[in-house]
Q: What sequence folds into this?
């Protein structure tokens, strides 16, 4: 996980929500003239009328197209999902509201916003709020695309996953081991980071394997790794080098396949992460 700065595009993000509320949800009482915002519907009008797509596009830009959880580079928005940090069906914002981005001044549950006497914003209704929406991958890996999700947004579902990527020093609070597993370091926020790692299944086999392979290739020039995309002989040589000690023929066979190598390359950020750690 890496720090995600929601402030850079906050005005535009909130602007999409404002526009949605004004265009699709605003009602005026004919007698009193008072304005109410009703029928806020993320899966319905927010999605169907294109607001979700715009929000996703903006969040993709903010996150430089990296998954908020596993750091996969997401090529295009069709492969991306919008993650509700406070789940859509959450009974309260408790456990999330200690993060400034999700504080009570910024975010209200949609049901509370809908019934509130005062509907001035902020706080924004959580199901359509910029600060409560981040981009996540679908957590799918080749050969088992029937498995709906191994990690990240869908695998997390509604489990408690506090937005530890809103901590500016999140990277220094996570240890990535040589076997590819990741762990919260002892110290402040340990339990919250751990909750998110477990909820988003960031130590699933596929992710661990991919991080382990990046660790093993950290000393090879990056251009040689890139060459492996189209040069299968180079790829075989590289894999044999990576697994020379353990004789891990299973991994060599697996990553020699184009589909696996392509997904592996989407995690190129770990090349930098392991090199910086050296
Ligand atoms: Zn992911």
A:
């Amino acid at each position: 996980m890496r720090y995600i700065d929601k402030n850079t595009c906050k005005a535009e993000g909130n602007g999409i929500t404002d526009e949605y509320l004004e265009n699709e949800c605003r009602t005026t009482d004919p007698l009193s003239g008072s304005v109410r915002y009703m029928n806020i519907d993320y899966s319905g009008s927010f999605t169907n009328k294109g607001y979700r797509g715009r929000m996703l596009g903006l969040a993709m830009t903010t996150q430089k197209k990296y998954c908020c959880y596993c750091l996969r580079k997401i090529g295009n928005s069709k492969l991306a999902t919008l993650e509700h940090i406070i789940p859509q069906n959450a009974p309260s914002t408790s456990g999330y509201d200690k993060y400034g981005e999700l504080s009570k001044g910024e975010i209200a549950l949609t049901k509370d916003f809908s019934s509130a006497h005062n509907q001035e914003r902020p706080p924004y209704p959580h199901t359509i709020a910029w600060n409560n929406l981040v981009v996540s991958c679908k957590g799918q890996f080749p050969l088992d695309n029937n498995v709906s999700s191994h990690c990240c947004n869908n695998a997390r579902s509604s489990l408690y996953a506090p937005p530890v990527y809103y901590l500016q020093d999140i990277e220094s609070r996570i240890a990535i081991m040589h076997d590819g597993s990741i762990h919260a370091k002892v110290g402040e926020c340990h339990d919250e980071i751990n909750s998110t790692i477990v909820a988003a299944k960031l130590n699933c086999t596929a992710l661990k394997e991919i991080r382990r392979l990046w660790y093993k290739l950290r000393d090879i020039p990056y251009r040689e790794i890139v060459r492996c995309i189209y040069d299968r002989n180079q790829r075989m040589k590289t894999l044999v080098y990576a697994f020379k000690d353990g004789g891990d023929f299973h991994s060599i066979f697996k990553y020699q396949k184009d589909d696996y190598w392509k997904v592996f390359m989407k995690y190129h950020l770990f090349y930098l992460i392991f090199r910086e750690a050296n």
Residues 67, 69-70, 72, 136-137, 139, 151-152 surround zinc ion (CB under 6 Å). The first helix runs from residue 10 to 25. Residues 10-137 form one domain.
